[in-house]
Design brief:
This protein has 259 residues and is of the alpha/beta class. It has 2 domains: 1-81 and 168-259, Rossmann fold (3-Layer(aba) Sandwich); 90-166, no CATH class. The chain has helices at residues 44-51, 74-78, 97-107, 116-119, 122-135, 151-164, 181-194, 207-213, 231-235, 238-243; strands at 4-15, 18-29, 33-37, 59-64, 67-68, 82-85, 169-173, 199-203, 216-221, 224-229. The strands form 2 sheets. Strands 6-7-8-3-9-10 form a 6-stranded mixed beta sheet, with helices on both faces. It has a 4-stranded antiparallel beta sheet with strand order 2-1-4-5, with helices on one face.
Length: 259
């Protein structure tokens, strides 16, 4: 595997009297999907909050392109071509699917306030918008508004908006929460597409999806990384079994290993 493009070093986060993250060390490699799993309250979402600038760590570093970016504001993190996906959808009620993607493209352009007319040209739509509509199965819903979409299509639109911004690093917090097994299955294709030109840190509770898409899996328990490895290595790890009270044994469905 190539050199890590993100290195989290000795990261500690305290909120009040509680230690949320303890000396977390983690390397993330280019174009991999690294899944971060762990019991409820392990600190997974808090780690994403630190990495995206919404929380400030007490100690430690996050090295990206040979610079420590720990402590940067969210807008500064965004300028690094990083994007954060949240557990819940936050779409605009008065924008259609296509308009969401156009707005995302404008917001991430070099001159966001001078390209309103240019971005609506057919060339821009063909090059930047329509491929995403096709990739995320939203072409038929392009003129629909969020309330007219299924929840699965809303979550797909959330991911498409992150991608239209040309982010190279995606921090995704349970993007398939609330989806059915068949709806989650479609995300295997999404992740296989994403790893072609993006690096993904995925926080996820669905073990079927994790085993199907992750190149490596890191396990966080009580604020500490207790294991990192392949799906097979994680399943056989005694510490992981103890953290999950023996419940993490095998993926439950056909998702694992699916194309």
């Amino acid at each position: 595997m190539s050199t890590a493009i993100i290195q989290i070093q000795d990261l500690t986060l305290q909120l009040g009297q509680s230690t949320i993250l303890q000396q977390v060390n983690l390397s993330i490699f280019k174009h991999e999907v690294l899944a971060l799993i762990g019991p409820n309250g392990a600190g997974k979402s808090s780690l994403l909050q630190v990495m995206s600038g919404y929380l400030i760590a007490n100690t430690g570093r996050i090295i990206f392109k040979q610079k420590n970016i720990c402590g940067l504001k969210p807008y500064q993190i965004k300028k690094l071509a990083w994007a954060r996906g949240f557990q819940s959808s936050s779409l605009f009620t008065n924008l259609s699917v296509k308009e969401h993607l156009i707005a995302g493209y404008i917001a991430n352009s070099a001159n966001p306030y001078s390209c309103f007319q240019r971005v609506l040209q057919q060339h821009d739509l063909q090059q930047h918008i329509y491929p995403l509509l096709q990739e995320f199965d939203l072409l038929e819903q392009q003129d629909a508004y969020p309330h007219q979409l299924s929840y699965a299509h809303q979550r797909a639109l959330d991911l498409a908006i992150l991608c239209v911004g040309k982010a190279k690093v995606l921090l995704l917090d349970e993007p398939t929460a609330g989806l059915s097994q068949s709806e989650t299955h479609a995300w295997i294709h999404h992740f296989n597409h994403l790893r072609k030109n993006k690096t993904v840190l995925l926080v996820e509770h669905d073990m079927d999806l994790v085993f199907a898409v992750a190149d490596r899996i890191a396990v966080l328990d009580q604020g500490q990384i207790i294991a990192i490895g392949s799906a097979t290595e994680i399943q056989a790890n005694d510490k992981v079994q103890q953290a999950y009270l023996g419940q993490l044994i095998q993926p439950k469905s056909h998702l694992a290993g699916a194309e």
